[in-house]
Amino acid sequence: MFRQVSHGRIGTIWYIPIMAWPHFSRSFVHGPGLRIEAGRSTKDPTHTWGPQGRDLGMHGLLLLVSGSGAYRDSEGRRARVTAGDLILLFPGLRHDYGPGPGETWHEAFLDAAGPLPGLLESQGVLDRRRPLHRPDPSVAQLLLQFIAEIENGRLHDPRRAQLRLHGMLLALAGDEDDDGLERGRRTLVAALERKLDPRAAADAAGMGWELFRKRFRTRYGLPPARYRVHARCAAAAGMLLEPHMTEDAVADRLGFCDAAHLRRQMRSALGMSAAQFRRLHGGVRC
Q1: How many other CB atoms are found less than 10 A from the CB of residue 268?
Q2: What's the CATH architecture for 1-138?
Q3: Domain extents for the chain?
Q4: What is the pLDDT of residues 108-150, one digit of tens each?
Q5: Checking CA distances to 80, which of 15, 97, 154, 260 falls within 20 to 30 Å?
Q6: CA–CA distance, 185 with 137 (Å, rounded to integer)
Q7: How far apart are CA 213 and CA 170, in angstroms?
Q8: How would you label 95-126 residue by residue, b for 16+ Cβ within 10 Å and e otherwise?
C-alpha cells in the first residue's frame, strides 16, 4: 500500500500511501492579511498543456511526491520534474506542469496569499528566476507535515501558521548557501541516527556557536538543536507508516534512547504521540 520515495544523502525518510492519494483535496487557514491553501492532487497522462499556462495569483509550493513530468513557464524555462522535486510558483509568472504520456503525477501543494511571501521575494530569499528546487528529504517531510496539519484541522491559528510558513520558506530557499548556514543545516540533518553536538554544525558553517545559533533561528525558524529534533521526528513519522515497523524498531533505527523517548519527542515536535500518528495516518502496529 505504501510507495517508498528515496533520495538524498540521508536516505529514505518518508513513505506515502499513494493508492489512497486523492484526485483533489484542499483545506484552508485564513486570518487578517493571510490565506493559506493546502492539499493534494493527482494529474493523469491526459493532462492538456495550455498555450499560455496559468497565473496562480499568489505564491505557491508544489512538491512532486510520486511520478514524473515537466515544468514550463512564460519566461521560457523548461525542465524535467521527478519525485522529490519542488516547484516554487510566483504571482505574475504564468506556468504549467504535469505528467507526460504514460507518466503519473501525485503532488502536495501549499499556496499562500499575503504580504509575507512577497516580502521574502523582495529580500531575495525567494527568486522567481529559480522556480525548481531539490530540497533535502527532511525539509520536504516538514512541508508534508505542515500540509497534513492544515488538512486535519490541527493547524488553524493563522498567526501560528504564518510563523510556520515563514520558517518553511526560509528552509526551502536555503540551498543558496552564500554564508555557510546551509552547510550547517545539512550537517544537522545528516546521519540522523547518530548523536550530534549542534556545535558541529556551527563549525561546518564556519561560525562561532552564538552567531550561528542566532542566524540559524532567524533563517529557519527554529534553534539548531530543535531543528534536528524535528527532522528526526519527521523521519520517525515516515517509518511508522510501514506496517512492520514497531516503535522500538524506529527508536533503535534513529538513535532514540528507547520507544518512550521517541514518543516524548514526537509529542513535543509533532503535537501527537507515535500511536496517535499511526491511528491518524493509517499505520498498523504500535
Answers
A1: 12
A2: Sandwich (2.60)
A3: 1-138, 177-286
A4: 999 998 877 887 787 667 888 889 988 877 788 888 888 988 8
A5: 15
A6: 13
A7: 15
A8: bbbbbeeebbbbbbbbbbbbebbbebbeeebb
pLDDT tens track for 43-89: 877 666 666 788 989 999 999 988 899 999 999 999 999 988 999 99
pTM higher than 0.85 for the full model?
Answer: no
Model confidence pLDDT, tens digit, residues 213-230:
998 888 777 899 988 888
Place of cell 518512550: 260
**Long-range Cβ contacts of 198-202 (<8 Å, 24+ apart):** 198/224, 198/225, 198/228
| Residues contacting 64, CB < 8 A, separation 6+ | 81, 82, 83, 84, 85, 86, 87, 105, 106, 107
> 177-286: what CATH class?
mainly alpha
Residue 114 DSSP class: S
Other beta carbons within 10 angstroms of residue 19's beta carbon come to 8
Write phi, then psi, for 67 (nearest 5 degrees).
105, -160
